[in-house]
């Protein structure tokens, strides 16, 4: 079925948004971008999500991450709906653009179609798809959630921190990792290299295989 | 690029696993199944993940959810590696099957390829892909994470609860929802129907649009 997955370059589409026309690659620029779809304006989960996205936007911005929303409603609908979004989540200001895809051209290309949902006219609707796009314009990570499941912005922030740590250091983040927790050193780094790269030191976990591959450090 | 996405039926492949041969549809049965890939045995993040999956398995089982792991290592490697996995996470017992895909046939079909990783021989490696498959054998939700980002089992449990609540009632879960929090009533349910379906009552949030679409209840 639809195509876009991790590792793919996001298509450089021109989008109509609440902030005017945007080309995706220009918008991503040299930073990261979270492009996410919502099923429809004036619907319950979406209203809670877009306000929370706005609340988290400053934390994301500190990390060089922009937000870009998208649904199949038109720009005038988005603008009316933002009043509800901001009213529901006090202190939220939707300063990020929300794109309009009434012709369903973008959602197909970005793997954002919800197969189980349609509008009153039988048109396709977007899922809750979320792609984290890196400075190289490639999809680094995707969450494909259905209309019924609102996203978890703490998880979104967690994976952004993980991706950025891995991009800066030769490390990865273990299961259930939270920002501030120790990270693991990539297997491609030898112990000799690790001593240079991580002068703060590292701890190797003793395992039955004695292979010494599980090395924790702090970065 | 590769295909499988939410709404698609998972291919009914026969897999070699640590628990013998398994056909995916038989294994899913009438319940849910989380099929997830890991890049490689005897690597750091994977070792932390598979032990944690084992720790969460009883909670998932209570909800009718089975686990099925997968990488491109062979079954004998998996069996050796499980000793490390269980040693690292005390109290974990890897009772779920781990499939072997040394020919890279399965990871392509299941959209589990990590485009940025390869083994010492230049072969493709799996990403940290995770698909929640429902009793109808369709993919309900996917997380496509790269090798660097270990998954969050609390988020996995959260989305399972959300999917199952939505399958049982005409509800959805708002942003950052946690089990026990109020849910929202689907827009397809009229207020009259909602009174019948939710005798415990519901609260309609007052929003600038006055459209009355944001209705919270407990189920």
Automatic annotation (TrEMBL), chains A, B:
Gene3D superfamilies: Antioxidant, Horf6, Chain A, domain2, Glutaredoxin. One of its GO terms (biological process) is cell redox homeostasis. It is found in: Nucleus. It comes from Ensete ventricosum (Abyssinian banana). Its EC number is 1.11.1.24. It comes from the Eukaryota. This is Peroxiredoxin. Belongs to the peroxiredoxin family. Prx6 subfamily. The active site is at residue 46. Pfam families: 1-cysPrx_C, AhpC-TSA. One of its GO terms (cellular component) is cytosol. Its main location: nucleus. GO terms for molecular function: thioredoxin-dependent peroxiredoxin activity. Keywords: Antioxidant, Nucleus, Oxidoreductase, Peroxidase, Redox-active center. InterPro entries: AhpC/TSA, Peroxiredoxin_AhpC-typ, Peroxiredoxin_C, PRX_1cys, Thioredoxin-like_sf, Thioredoxin_domain. The keyword Repeat does not apply. It catalyses: a hydroperoxide + [thioredoxin]-dithiol = an alcohol + [thioredoxin]-disulfide + H2O. Thiol-specific peroxidase that catalyzes the reduction of hydrogen peroxide and organic hydroperoxides to water and alcohols, respectively. Seems to contribute to the inhibition of germination during stress. PROSITE patterns: THIOREDOXIN_2 (PS51352). Residues 4-165 form the Thioredoxin domain.
């Amino acid at each position: 079925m639809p195509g876009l997955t991790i590792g793919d370059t996001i298509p450089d589409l021109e989008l109509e948004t609440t902030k005017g026309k945007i080309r995706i690659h220009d918008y991503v620029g040299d930073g990261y971008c979270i492009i996410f779809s919502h099923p429809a304006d004036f619907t319950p989960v979406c209203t809670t999500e877009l306000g929370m996205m706005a609340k988290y936007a400053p934390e994301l911005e500190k990390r060089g991450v922009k937000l870009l929303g998208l649904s199949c409603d038109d720009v005038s609908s988005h603008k009316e709906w933002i009043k509800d979004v901001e009213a529901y989540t006090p202190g939220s200001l939707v300063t990020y653009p929300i794109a309009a895809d009434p012709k369903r051209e973008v959602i197909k290309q970005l793997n954002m179609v919800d197969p189980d949902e349609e509008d009153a006219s039988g048109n396709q609707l977007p899922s809750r798809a979320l792609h984290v796009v890196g400075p190289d314009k490639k999809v680094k990570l995707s969450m494909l959630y259905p209309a019924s499941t609102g996203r978890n912005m703490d998880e979104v922030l967690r994976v952004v921190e993980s991706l950025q740590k891995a991009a800066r250091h030769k490390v990865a983040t273990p299961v259930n990792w939270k920002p501030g927790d120790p990270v693991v050193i990539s297997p491609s780094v030898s112990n000799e290299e690790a001593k240079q790269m991580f002068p703060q030191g590292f701890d190797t976990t003793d395992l039955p295989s004695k292979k010494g591959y599980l090395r924790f450090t702090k970065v």
